[in-house]
UniProtKB/TrEMBL annotation:
Obligatory cofactor(s): FAD
Coiled-coil stretches: none
MF terms in GO: oxidoreductase activity, acting on CH-OH group of donors
Alphabetically ordered keywords of this record: FAD, Flavoprotein, Oxidoreductase
Pfam families according to UniProt: DAO, GMC_oxred_C
Domain FAD dependent oxidoreductase: 19-257
Family the entry assigns: Belongs to the GMC oxidoreductase family.
Protein's UniProt name: Fructose dehydrogenase large subunit
Amino acid sequence: MMPVQSLNEIETTDTLHADLLIVGGGACGLTLARAMSRPGRRIILLESGGATEDAAHETLNAVEMPGWSDEEAATRDSYHKTLTRHWSGDHQQYGVRCRGLGGSTQAWAGKSAPLDPIDYEARNWVPLSGWPMDSAELAPFIERASDLLNLGPRVYDERLWELLRRDPPTLSPENEALRTMFWQFARSRRQMTDIMRFGADFQADLPEGVQVVTQATVTSLDSTADGTCCTGLIARSLAGRHIKVEAPVCVLAAGAIENARLLLLSRENTPNGLGNDHDTVGRYLMDHPTAVVARAAPDHLSRMAAQFGLFGLRGNGQSHAYMYGLALTDHMQRKKQWLNGALFVTAERAADDPFSALRRLLRGQSKAWTSDVGSVLRSPVRLARGAGARVLERGYLPDTLSRGIADLAVRFMPNTLAGDLRSGHLPVKLSGVRFEATTEQPPDPANRVTLSDARDPFGSPIPHVAWSGGEAARSNLLKLAHTLCASFDQAGLPPLISEPWVQEGKPATAPIFDLGHSLGTTRMSDDPKLGVVDRDCAVHTVAGLYAIGGSVFPTSGHANPTLMMVALTLRLADHLEGRMTSARR
């Protein structure tokens, strides 16, 4: 096993050689490295950041995207700023980018679900829809990916109620339009109260023959003079060191924004960028446009939080947390020619949350000292729960005991534990329950990543993003909102309070935001004129070069994409293994 090493610690100036070169140390890059590890095979994985996030490498995450309204910018800020230590909406004007081993799994919530079978289909009401494979072909890889993510039973619909040994809600909004939808959360194997963090798990069990080089930002890809074959790359550190790496196979696994940017930056032999013969690199950028559509009435917060909360299920030797929500039925999508979409509940933190108050007091930032002290003194039980979570987290108890306690918490108090995890392992005080809708976004060539005139610390152009939720996606959010409220009324559930833009029927005014699910900039297509990679994730016009991750999605569906990204990575690993085996014969 090779230790993880910073580029600044590599003494040689000679060109490094590998059998397989991977750019990016996120979920896809680390999964591919482990899957491809074999005795005698040399794999080099380059990660731009360090072992974890840091402020210096956050400077490389700048994204330029004008156009957010003040309300949308504020919504993005409140939604994303708690995910990472360094994210700023002014700096990352689109998306949530993370440098450091583990990539975006340093910031994600662990929320997981597969695409629906309809998402793979060519639908005449969704332009450019259709994947080169169907759900059956990807099913075995989704199963393997679920194991890697430490997920429980692969049940995401109403059948889960039976496994939970619970009766479905007596009053339920499910009908012709809405169906039961469950998400589950990837749990760390190492830290029982945390979600899956790929970087920490990878470092705890380094695979054979994989050299991980951190603080190594790829600034350009090398190719033959005609640009038809990738030969390697150049990587640099913020401290001024650089290396050249050559390999017969190079895989870009740096995220949808960076994968496209790297291809566009590589212009020495191809003026429009490597693999960009048809001007498709960076196009068809998608996300999951999301908006608050309604809120529970103050008198019904507890009831709604309980009904649309989290549920614990024992399986595979441990307990797993599932979140209940709603999704559009295939029938409604076909009948009304709607995009796919889903609805879920988010609890809101109270202004007098004791942990926020305590943090302000300890940091000397309190502007209402008496009020903050009162909030702390009124919440001894909640503070004790937070202290207990810290004991588990920091390893003060034997591992066996910690695992047992965490499993019991997931099984019998999933809402409590999940809330603790989402707020940094601290049980917060809640003031509201809001219903959020998220929608599929049709691929649109106008939504794209290009290169800005602004430069990063290496002198390279930063990514410029043109992205809009679009009329179709906004309209779908309004349809989801109306369907949800009508379904509550029909089921006899407490009426919801629609957001003003829903009441007025004006989706153009909805304060939507990106979920940080950047997809589609090197989309998969059998036709080189409509995509960047083929069904095996090979760049159409550049031999030896592949891309993997959310950037290859032809369409977005509504599901959080990490499970599908890992599944596609495992499929790519099988393809590369077959290719390398054939090359040795």
